[in-house]
């Protein structure tokens, strides 16, 4: 398959225009775990859940938000360096910013206007980055010590 475009979507709303929240995940197991954990708090009739298959691209994020154009994105990627990088990639895709984010073990590199900043493992926070750059989207992470939503569900 084409990992740059393909996503797995779970949505109980037949009319995409009625979706008001779009939750993005790295994997389908995390998507399903999140729904299981929060099923009583979620309005499934106005929510869409999108799994990117372990790879997050501009085409996946923008394509999903084009489908659910009335929805607000919630980035529910893993609570680790790759997950934080995916938050930045997703936000940059929607905001049409020339931000680049890489996770080349053990470091995270963020590039803005051709200026690179390198962070040691575990030092980069997408929450802090969103605040600093006034990113209007939501990040939803499992609390430490959990890495992903399946870890939360299983413990």
Provide a descriptive summary of the structure in words:
There is one protein chain. The chain is α/β, with parallel strands linked by helices and 155 residues long. The chain contains five helices and eight strands; from the N terminus they run E-E-H-E-H-E-H-E-E-E-H-E-H. Strands 1-3-2-4-8 form a five-stranded mixed sheet. A three-stranded antiparallel sheet has the order 5-6-7, with helices on one face. Helix 1 links the parallel strand 2 and strand 3. The longest helix has 15 residues.
Give a quick rundown of the structure.
The protein has five helices and eight strands; from the N terminus they run E-E-H-E-H-E-H-E-E-E-H-E-H. The protein is an alpha/beta fold and 155 residues long.
Distance between the termini: 33 Å
Helical/strand content category? alpha/beta
Q: Helix-strand pattern, N to C? A: EEHEHEHEEEHEH
* Total beta-strand segments: 8
Query: Which regions have little confidence, pLDDT < 50, spanning 5+ residues?
Result: none
User: From the alpha-carbon coordinates, what is the Rg to the nearest angstrom?
Assistant: 15 Å
Q: Can you give the helix content as a percent range? A: 25-40%
The major β-sheet equals: 5 strands, mixed
The percent range for strand residues is: 15-25%
Write a concise keyword list for the protein shown above.
five-stranded mixed sheet, 32% helix, 5 helices, alpha/beta, 155 residues, single chain, 8 strands
Give the topology, please:
Elements: E1 8-11, E2 21-25, H1 28-38, E3 47-51, H2 58-67, E4 72-75, H3 81-95, E5 99-104, E6 107-112, E7 115-119, H4 126-132, E8 138-139, H5 149-154
Parallel strand pairs: 2-3, 2-4, 4-8
Antiparallel strand pairs: 1-3, 5-6, 6-7
Helix pairs in contact: 2-3, 3-4
